[in-house]
């Protein structure tokens, strides 16, 4: 018995010792990245000018050109795919990088020094970008990109301020920049999603002067199924040009801001139950009816739902009849109108005139 008690006591002592030696897990301290290599010696605009002769074949950059830039893009929304856009005061340019979720490492507002030596200048869709030769889509491998792109300090979103642009005055130096377009509306706002037919889609935005710009959205974006907003508002995104056609790529749905939900033409809120979008005055006079009665008609107002405006109109009354049939087919109550001083349904108006 004494031997057993000794073993029990020894085991308890050993267990207590082991527990006492166990330490709580301490995560490694965060170390702010700091760039200590040679300073920048060129700008994005100068690099683009120096390699403006690049055509279809990528050209290796043999000079130790160093850019001091800021990250302005984000692939968090899935709309920008295996690319990162960098800017300096002179302009912006995108880098093709074979990596997902780049934003987890290179966040918006992160300062980055890039040594271009050993990378390639590539022309795609008529525009210059930085990549690598003989790789899938001329993209730089993730490991290689990190060897060339050195972060400096913590990200600061206030560094990535979009440039306000006017659709009438888009210029070459804006390609690759983060831009902001104010007081525009989606032509198909409220009617379509950002993506249709499960394929990359261009949806035009337009200002009050009729100038337009395509907003391009990938079917893989997180907001592809979201409905286009109604009314005037602001759109932010990366400005690009593909074979001469300007286009804007939003980063996330947050790049659509302050849309007022009002009809672009009238500036009034959309109310599909009461909106009067067609009104015809026939004047006064006596007209025969199907019942033999002669009716004195005063001006009438026909209410038609907004979705009906796309239907072909033959005459005001036949339009009213079409509207009535369409409304009944879709389960709506007959659309009300004012005729001859009393309220009547579209069916009653049609009976009077036919």
From TrEMBL:
Check the record and name the InterPro entries matching this protein.
Answer: DUF5689 (IPR043744)
Q: Which Pfam families match?
A: DUF5689
Q: Which domain of life is it from?
A: Bacteria
Show the PROSITE patterns listed in the entry: PROKAR_LIPOPROTEIN
- DUF5689 domain: from which residue to which, for each copy? 40-256
Protein name (Swiss-Prot/TrEMBL): DUF5689 domain-containing protein
| Organism ancestry | Bacteria, Pseudomonadati, Bacteroidota, Sphingobacteriia, Sphingobacteriales
């Amino acid at each position: 018995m004494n031997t057993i008690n000794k073993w029990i006591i020894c085991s308890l002592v050993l267990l207590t010792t082991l527990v006492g030696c166990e330490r709580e897990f301490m995560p490694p301290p965060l170390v702010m990245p700091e760039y200590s290599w040679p300073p920048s010696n060129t700008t994005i605009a100068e690099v683009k000018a120096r390699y403006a002769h690049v055509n279809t074949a990528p050209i290796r950059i043999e000079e130790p050109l160093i850019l001091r830039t800021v990250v302005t893009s984000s692939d968090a929304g899935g709309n920008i795919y295996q690319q990162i856009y960098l800017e300096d005061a002179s302009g912006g340019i995108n880098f093709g990088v074979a990596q997902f979720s780049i934003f987890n490492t290179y966040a918006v507002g992160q300062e980055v020094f890039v040594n271009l030596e050993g990378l390639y200048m590539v022309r795609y869709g008529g525009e210059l970008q930085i990549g690598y030769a003989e790789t899938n889509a001329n993209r730089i491998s993730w490991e290689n990109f990190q060897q060339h792109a050195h972060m400096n300090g913590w990200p600061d979103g206030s560094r990535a301020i979009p440039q306000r642009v006017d659709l009438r005055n888009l210029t070459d130096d804006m390609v690759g920049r983060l831009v902001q377009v104010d007081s525009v509306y989606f032509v198909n706002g409220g009617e379509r999603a950002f993506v249709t037919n499960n394929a990359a889609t261009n949806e035009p935005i337009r200002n009050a002067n009729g100038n337009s710009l395509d907003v391009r959205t990938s079917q893989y974006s997180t907001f592809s199924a979201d409905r286009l907003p109604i009314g005037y508002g602001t759109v932010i995104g990366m400005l690009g040009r593909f074979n001469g056609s300007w286009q804007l790529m939003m980063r996330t749905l947050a790049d659509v801001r302050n849309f007022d939900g009002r009809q672009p033409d009238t500036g009034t809120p959309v109310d599909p139950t009461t909106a009067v979008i067609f009104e015809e005055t026939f004047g006064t006079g006596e007209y025969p009816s199907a019942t033999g009665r002669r009716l004195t008609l005063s001006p009438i107002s026909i209410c038609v739902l907004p979705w009906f405006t796309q239907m072909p109109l033959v005459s005001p009354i036949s339009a009213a009849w079409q509207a009535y049939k369409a409304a009944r087919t879709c389960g709506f109550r007959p659309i009300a109108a004012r005729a001859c001083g009393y309220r009547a349904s579209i069916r009653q108006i049609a009976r009077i005139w036919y």
